[in-house]
């Protein structure tokens, strides 16, 4: 029974953590420097993340980079964070539709940008940035 209580307590703690908005998983204590990553991502333009907030409380988030099958450029990754912050503060929001432009959802990251990252550490930093952003998005 003690194991069951501990498991329930830890799940409750995890659930609470997952529902906290505005918190990041990684910080400088993990070797993650968000401002440096933002400067790196700014070097990879193309596409946009568009957000429409309807009066009925439903939002529509559109991945808009159809020339690359809506692949995420560095600038789009930065814009996604901006839209997530906007959604965190949207008190009238009830639901969100995520879609891709031109009948394609997303092919992932723009491989030209990924190949241009200087080091494996740069790649890890971008992964940490997106993990933080997508965790906030999920919350």
Automatic annotation (TrEMBL):
Keyword Lyase: yes
Signal peptide: none
Key words of the record: Lyase
InterPro entries: ClpP/crotonase-like_dom_sf, Enoyl-CoA_hydra/iso
MF (Gene Ontology): lyase activity
Pfam families per record: ECH_1 (PF00378)
Protein name: Ethylmalonyl-CoA decarboxylase 1
Organism field: Homo sapiens
Organism classification: Eukaryota, Metazoa, Chordata, Craniata, Vertebrata
Originating gene: ECHDC1
């Amino acid at each position: 029974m003690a194991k069951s209580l501990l498991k329930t307590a830890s799940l409750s703690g995890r659930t609470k953590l997952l529902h906290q908005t505005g918190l990041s998983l990684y910080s400088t204590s993990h070797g993650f420097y968000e401002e440096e990553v933002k400067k790196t991502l700014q070097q990879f333009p193309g596409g946009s993340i568009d957000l429409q907030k309807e009066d009925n409380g439903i939002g529509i988030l559109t991945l808009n980079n159809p020339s690359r099958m809506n692949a995420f450029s560095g600038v789009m990754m930065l814009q996604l964070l901006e839209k997530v912050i906007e959604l965190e503060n949207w008190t009238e929001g009830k639901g969100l539709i995520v879609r891709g432009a031109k009948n394609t959802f997303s092919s992932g990251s723009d491989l030209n940008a990924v190949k241009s990252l200087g080091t494996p550490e740069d790649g890890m930093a971008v992964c940490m940035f997106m993990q933080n952003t997508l965790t906030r998005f999920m919350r």
